[in-house]
Structures are given as structure tokens and as C-alpha cells.
Amino acid sequence: MRKLTLKEIKEKELELALELQEVCRTHGLRLYLCGGSLLGAVRHGGFIPWDDDIDVSLPRPDYRKLIELNKKESLFSDHLRLICYETGTDSYPFMKLVDTRTRVQDAYSKEDASSALWVDILPVDGVPEDPQQQRDIFQKTEKYRKILKLNWANPRAGKTTFRRMFKRFVIPFAKLYGIRRCNEKLIALASREPFETARKVAIVTWGLYGTGEVVDKEAFLQPVDVSFEGYTFQAMSCWDQYLTQLYGDYMQLPPEEKRKTHDMDAWIAEEEPEKAELG
Fold first, then answer.
1. What angle separates helix 60-72 from helix 6-26, to the nearest 10 degrees?
2. b/e string for 71-101 if b means 16 or more Cβ within 10 A?
3. Exposed end of the chain (fewer CB within 10 Å): N or C?
4. Angstrom distance (rounded) from CA 242 to CA 216
5. CA neighbor of 81 nearest in space, from 97, 65, 58
6. Predicted model pTM
């Protein structure tokens, strides 16, 4: 296999996002850029220069529909695969579209936890209107996310000796609690308030910014076009409010020491040269 450069990683992930967008458009699914990818589109016109992944979201009804459609027919190119906890093909409470020709190893995961280059597809769920109830939900999801991530953590990786020792102590307890139970808890918390009847919505299962993820559903469902690496994607109409809630003064570049990258390496299978036909 050949090791990919950061530029090549971004190109492969953009290919994934474009094919996913085409499938969603064909089937009337509402796919939006979110999180760091939306920030990148607004501030940089594409990837954040030091970042290397793409995050998109789907309303929970569309998310479920994509799972069912993919069960019935092959929606994507042969080398792409849609994986998710609901179909027993992944261990996270959200979908990923992966390029099976690639392999990824990240420094903070176990050596046997390699995966493929991916695009995260995050479900958007309804949340209660009461702020305290919102806080309760996100406090619980944060707890289960931490337990879940410890199941793949590399006990030898960590920025300090204390963190490495702490991980070695808590990882066995996380494994005892289990991946399945964490996912079931996260999905149950996210499903308490049906998207269809909610007035507030958010990425709940993997909402890293807690109540900052919450927006009005009416504004969320009004899409606007944004440019990402020269291609047109969609975003929620309240993108400015959303990005401000997540990042504060989001147009201000963070100091260099806070420009976090995914500490990972990626490889792609070399294509075999075509054999000349014998005449």
C-alpha cells in the first residue's frame, strides 16, 4: 500500500462527500455540512488548512431512510461502504461512508483498531425546549461518549504520564460497560424528542459542544448554499448563530498551538497495472 499525503487524504475525503451528496440529492435527503467542515467552508472556502476530515449531518428521518435505502440496493461505488451501528457494521452511534481501498491508523487508538478513510454522517435529533433538560441530555451523552472512546484507546498513548496511567486504570472498566450498551444509551437519549415534532434540534449522539449544538428546527430546515473546495454544498440557514455557539468569534484564527490535527496516517492500495492482451 502507498502512504497518502495530507493533500491526497483531503482529495479522497472530498470524493466521498461528493458521492454522498449526489446520492442524497437523488433520494431527496437533506444533507448539510456541519461542525468543523461548515466552519472551513465559511472561513476558508473548504478544508480548515490543518484539518483533514469532513463532517455532514442528516435529520434523523433522512438518516434512517438512507440506512434502509442502502439495505435494498447498492447506492455507492464498489469501493465505498456505508457503515453504522444500526446495521452491525460499525461501533459508533452515527454513520460513516468509507473508502475500502484505504487504511488509517491514528496515534491514540489501539494498533488493531485501524479503519478506512471516512466521512462522518451525524444524525440531527429533536431536543427539549427547556434548557435544563437539554443540559441533562448532553451531560449524559458526554459520559457515554467518553466510555465508548476508551474502548478503542491506546493505553500507551497520551500527552502526559498521568494521562497514560489513568487510561490504563479506566480502560478495563470501560470495556466491562461495553460498546453495545454505550451506543444503546446514546441512541436512546437522542431519540427522546422526535425530530418530526420538536421545535429545537441538535446533533446529540456526538454533539461535542453540548447545548451549543442546539438550533431552531425551522431555521435548520431552511438550507443555504455554501462553497467547499469549489463545490456547492448545503448548510442550515442559521449557520452564523450555530458557528458562534460552537466557536465564538469563528472568523478569528486560533493560535498555532491550538490548531488541532488528527494524528493519523493513511494508505491506499496500489492499483495493479492492466495486463496487455496477447495477440
1. 90
2. eeeebbeeebbbbbbbeeebbbbbbbbbbeb
3. C
4. 10
5. 97
6. 0.90
Q: What's the chain's Rg over C-alpha atoms? A: 19
User: Rounded to whole angstroms, what are the CA distances from 60 to 55, 112, 165?
Assistant: 15, 31, 39
177-197 b/e (C-beta count within 10 Å ≥ 16 → b)? eebeebbebbbebbeebebee
Q: Do 250 and 244 contact (CB within 8 A), yes or no?
A: yes
Q: What are phi and psi of 214, to 5 degrees?
A: -80, 130
Task: Name every residue whose Cβ is closer than 8 Å to that of residue 253 and which is 6 or more positions away in sequence.
Answer: none
**Strands 115-127, 55-59: pairing kind:** parallel
Between CA 17 and CA 179 the distance in angstroms is 27
Count of CA atoms in the C-beta half-sphere (13 A) of 204: 29
Domains and CATH numbers, the chain: 2-125+202-268 (3.30.460)
Q: Is pLDDT of 167 > 80? A: no
- Count the Cβ atoms, other than its own, within 10 Å of residue 207: 24
**Residue appearing with cell numbers 464498489:** 78
